Amino acid sequence: xxxxxxxxxxxxxxxxxxxxxxxxxxxxxxxxxxxxxxxxxxxxxxxxxxxxxxxxxxxxxxxxxxxxxxxxxxxxxxxxxxxxxxxxxxxxxxxxxxxxxxxxxxxxxxxxxxxxxxxxxxxxxxxxxxxxxxxxxxxxxxxxxxxxxxxxxxxxxxxxxxxxxxxxxxxxxxxxxxxxxxxxxxxxxxxxxxxxxxxxxxxxxxxxxxxxxxxxxxxxxxxxxxxxxxxxxxxxxxxxxxxxxxxxxxxxxxxxxxx
Amino acid sequence: xxxxxxxxxxxxxxxxxxxxxxxxxxxxxxxxxxxxxxxxxxxxxxxxxxxxxxxxxxxxxxxxxxxxxxxxxxxxxxxxxxxxxxxxxxxxxxxxxxxxxxxxxxxxxxxxxxxxxxxxxxxxxxxxxxxxxxxxxxxxxxxxxxxxxxxxxxxxxxxxxxxxxxxxxxxxxxxxxxxxxxxxxxxxxxxxxxxxxxxxxxxxxxxxxxxxxxxxxxxxxxxxxxxxxxxxxxxxxxxxxxxxxxxxxxxxxxxxxxxxxxxxxxxxxxxxxxxxxxxxxxxxxxxxxxxxxxxxxxxxxxxxxxxxxxxxxxxxxxxxxxxxxxxxxxxxxxxxxxxxxxxxxxxxxxxxxxxxxxxxxxxxxxxxxxxxxxxxxxxxxxxxxxxxxxxxxxxxxxxxxxxxxxxxxxxxxxxxxxxxxxxxxxxxxxxxxxxxxxxxxxxxxxxxxxxxxxxxxxxxxxxxxxxxxxxxxxxxxxxxxxxxxxxxxxxxxxxxxxxxxxxxxxxxxxxxxxxxxxxxxxxxxxxxxxxxxxxxxxxxxxxxxxxxxxxxxxxxxxxxxxxxxxxxxxxxxxxxxxxxxxxxxxxxxxxxxxxxxxxxxxxxxxxxxxxxxxxxxxxxxxxxxxxxxxxxxxxxxxxxxxxxxxxxxxxxxxxxxxxxx
Lengths: 259, 661
Prior knowledge:
Number of strands of chain A: 12
Strand order of the largest sheet of chain A: 6-7-8-3-9-10
Distance between the termini of chain A: 39 Å
Keywords (chain A): ATP-binding, Cell membrane, Ion transport, Iron, Iron transport, Membrane, Nucleotide-binding, Transport
CATH topology of the largest domain in chain B: ABC transporter involved in vitamin B12 uptake, BtuC
CATH architecture of the largest domain in chain B: Orthogonal Bundle
Largest interface: A-B, 33 and 26 residues
Subcellular location (chain A): Cell membrane
Protein name (chain A): ATP-binding cassette domain-containing protein
Largest sheet of chain A: 6 strands, mixed
Strand order of the largest sheet of chain B: 1-2
CATH class of chain A: Alpha Beta
Membrane topology (chain A): Peripheral membrane protein
Number of helices of chain B: 27
CATH topology of chain A: Rossmann fold
Helix content of chain B: over 70%
GO molecular function (chain A): ATP binding
Shape of chain B: globular
CATH architecture of chain A: 3-Layer(aba) Sandwich
CATH class of the largest domain in chain B: Mainly Alpha
Strand content of chain A: 25-35%
Oligomer: heterodimer
């Protein structure tokens, strides 16, 4: 049994007059892919933002690799954990290679030299995400799916052991959705990268992730291997709707549907 | 529940209390007047004269002006569907004041004929310009307010220039320019009272169209309202009310903004309720302010002109109102625009840009207009003229370069292509810093002046960034926070200008952006400052790349957010301060240069360098043009640049429209 990479104890989050996340205990093991699911307003995005140090918990503690989050310096944390926000910003006239190169910032810092090794990591990330032909195109001229791959490449260039994604497919059509998530899965397997991904679609999550963490109204309602979560009574508890599960006609994987 | 104001019971009671307090304060003011010296019966007589011909008319004037402004603001906010519209934020007051300044200086007969008509004309022109600019954006509140601010700034610089050119002849204008309520007779009160009454009648007649105008255009049209006619009629009434106040007592900011907002906060919902409550609240507010100003002041001198004092409560109210402002069409003014195309070989292009700058500088040094027409200065003529032309040119170029750098920093810090020293209120904040130094220090040392401007600029920039960061640097909030703080600072500056002494003269020269006083020392100091302040920025180019991607991405990449923002803000503030010390606060070059650099296709770190060069070239060009175009007169170069920059900014706002379809 490996020790957890992220360890949360009693983590909660509230804004004046509203509790977003009830006290939560959770351990995330290294190398696995976690899917965070739940209805709108369930607190899943808040949770991933707290893991990424984008939000401070209102109480409780989160540690990463045995050290409390607050004790990590900006730079060393950015070398270990990469985060992609739900809405990626406009790239402001940068081309693909330039934007991906920003992923090396935690390694070379403000004044450090951009070394040959940095360059190699950037090229490798571009190749891995299949962006080779676009490397000199302006990011803002790419399609939504291509743009999402650029941000993924930036995270790969950042060379972290953990990747946090907040609804990476919310702006994509079905084909690109599937493509981006397969890429995430492959990369995780190749490099042993831990992934936490917020997803809307339970079927997509079950196909992509090893484990599912389900939240509802700020409470943890289910946590377990994807195959175990895909059961009518558990799904019903998550979404508050009667749900059914059937098998994919060709691949046999479970598919959830609303009754 | 019937109450005296169409507000909730609690608010009505609160306003009744405030009204009583204002009355008590006025009584206290009368009681505490210093005893007059002299033989008993003469002193008594004088006392009665003062009471009936100074104190009483002043109190009545304050009540009437407050009511007129409250009504004017309520009408403007309704008809423009803009919760921060007010005679001062949309440029009516500045337009009216500039018209009065121009008329006093050049056509005194017009002033004799009717001050109110002149002021009304100025206000109408200002509003016409603003409507023309924002019409295609559906009178988008942000566009309206930014246009209003640019118009106010250009009007202020023009006014300062005219006053400097005409000397003390016009200086008296500034005494009331800042809203001094001092009265020697009942004239002002008698002038405003009937006009306010007419305004009220007009507002009542227009009540029905006004109710419908709160809907969107389509809704109003479908209800059969002659949309434009009623809109223009209501605007006319609002301008007329505000122009009358300006003509009688000067610019009194924020009352027209605050009164309807407080009425709304107190529970007034329908246009009728707001139109009834706003004038009453406005009257109470202005009366309270005016009495306090007199009590806190000493004997004959007020602590500050009332119009400037209203800014002290008005500025915070404006900031409080910002979250209510919605873009008319949900689109942001000046949203990030996709770079059209990137320049293919940036370093070669930068070299070309640098060469062009040098060519412009040489042309500006050599060509000039003399008494005998155009001359090409060579040989001894050149060496004779160099001491006159050289320092000005170097100072203008250095200031332009620094503004180009400061503007780029601000646009990158805020990820907003329309940020700049003027728009974010940083220039005006520098003016407050300068005023503080002028007041606190007995000796006028240029180094202290620069320090004062730098301190004021930095504090302002940090406040704006803090306000904007609370809303995640939303583009609108940022711009509006800048406009709010800018108008607050301009009000403080008017206070100092109204003193009419040596200090206000220094401030006035600074406002006008004149480079006439620039000598060799200033030129060298400017040049050194530009080199010393701009070169370290090249080390921060990675920050400048990452920061515009937003807070989440910056943090995720391990960028030290607070440290980087603070460092870059300090550079931006000090650069702005040096530049505004040399060429005044209102050139708009800090907005334009980064923009031109982008249009030319420079991005990332090259944008900074290109913007520095563009700013430098633009200011050198402006300096030369201001020297030759109006020969033998000289327009201050800062003003000249603003006269070019204003239209550019406006074009930019309009372009945002076509750009998004």
